[in-house]
Specification:
GMP Synthetase, Chain A, domain 3, alpha+beta, flat, Ribosome-bd_factorA_CS, 159 residues, cytoplasm
Length: 159
């Protein structure tokens, strides 16, 4: 089998991993570079464009990351709304304007094929805030303080 389709690589399970650009080797330098260019162009389009779609008329969308498939035909776009958690309501509207965004992106980027856009909510900020709240909880602080005191007593020399 050829390496191009990714089927001979261990860990590449199903089309979702392929579309997200996930592989055990990680994304290539070109995937990262083109993904960052796609992110920049999409962020510019979202900042300067007012959409006719009523769901997107007053939406401020932040493009946090773009992952390209190894063949550069699919791009998974992670989006967030800073300070708001209602990003799931925008996904149908974004799916409707994806062909138009793809056309606009093809005018600004010099790629052989403009990637098909797939939008996903970015949950990393929510996850980070959850982990921060867990680390600040009294139970974890107590455990960390007890562990820290145990480490200090081991460092003291015996007399």
């Amino acid at each position: 089998m050829s390496r191009r389709n990714g089927s001979d690589r261990p860990g590449m399970k199903g089309p979702a991993g392929y579309l997200a650009g996930l592989s055990p080797l990680g994304p290539s330098q070109r995937q990262l570079r083109v993904g960052e260019e796609v992110r920049r162009v999409l962020a510019e389009l979202f900042a300067r464009t007012t959409f006719r779609d009523p769901d997107l008329a007053d939406a401020d969308v932040t493009v946090t990351e773009v992952r390209l498939s190894p063949d550069f035909k699919h791009a998974t776009v992670f989006i967030a709304r800073l300070g708001r958690s209602d990003i799931d309501a925008l996904l149908p509207g974004l799916k409707r304007v994806a062909p138009w965004l793809r056309t606009q992106m093809s005018h600004k980027l010099r790629l052989r094929v403009a990637p098909e856009l797939h939008f996903q909510p970015d949950t990393t900020l929510d996850y980070a805030m959850h982990m921060d709240s867990l680390l600040k909880s009294p139970d974890v602080k107590r455990d960390l303080d007890a562990q820290h005191q145990g480490d200090e007593s081991e460092d003291e020399p015996e007399v």
